[in-house]
Write a structure and sequence with these properties.
about 290 residues, alpha/beta, 9-stranded mixed beta sheet, two-stranded antiparallel ribbon, 9 helices, about 40% helix
Length: about 290
Amino acid sequence: MGNKLAIIIVNWKQYELTTKCLFSIYKSKFKDFEIVLVDNESNTEKLKNLIKNFKKIKVFQNDTNLGFGAANNQGINYAIQNNFKYVMLLNNDTEVDENFIDQLKKKINKNNLIGAVQPLIMNYNNKNSIWSAGGYINKFFGYTSTNKNSNENLKLDWITGCCMLLKTDLIKKVGLIDENFFAYYEDVDWSLRIKDLGYSLNLVNTSLVYHYGSKSSENSSFEGSLSPKVHYLNFKNHLYLLRKHNDKFNSTGFIIYQLIKLFFYSIYFILRFRFNKLRIIYKGLNDGLKLEIK
């Protein structure tokens, strides 16, 4: 398929947001792409109403929510098997600028040592506010942070799975997304593995994407605005990441950080009577320590 691009979008019960995302993509000036829509816990009727508006779309329906990593891997495998040159991961809770693909492709083809690129991702409700310009990792304490500086020359430790572009040839070298993460931190892991092969990760500040926010993480209840599962995955996946890449971090530092993190979360949940969340973060810690490393 020559220089063709597969744009992989994972949907989970957010058909309206996904529709807006797709409409914005089809306004793009770059046309040599195919949408690969992976619908987790699929609602067939809602899916039919969504895809009737679009051409060039490949759909995977999953009966259950397989998670961000496994769903994207379905699309990635499809792209590899069908000889696409490029793969893009794009969150469904985004809308994109009409030039965003061209700018990303131009950058990734500039240098053979550029492994993956991401656009400048702005907050949808405040288009002058940066949501992500890539990220950094504190190697002593082992925590990640998001860069809010649009300078393209900064050296990034990781780029976000909200939107990233890379070549299928590189994916064949680095491997698929680690499905043990389910969701959260899998982009950090993938980024570290890409860098381990000697490639760089780059921001393209002339490519713009607008992000609504993590709608799938919201939880309206007495237990607070974030779903308990988000806290579970946060603890589990952070520990799993640190164990998987332990040679990159100071073990004393990240143990201290994890203990402090656990202490303050525990106190907060006790004071707010959020005992389900208190229980689940300890389960996350336990699972993060026991999970077999891929």
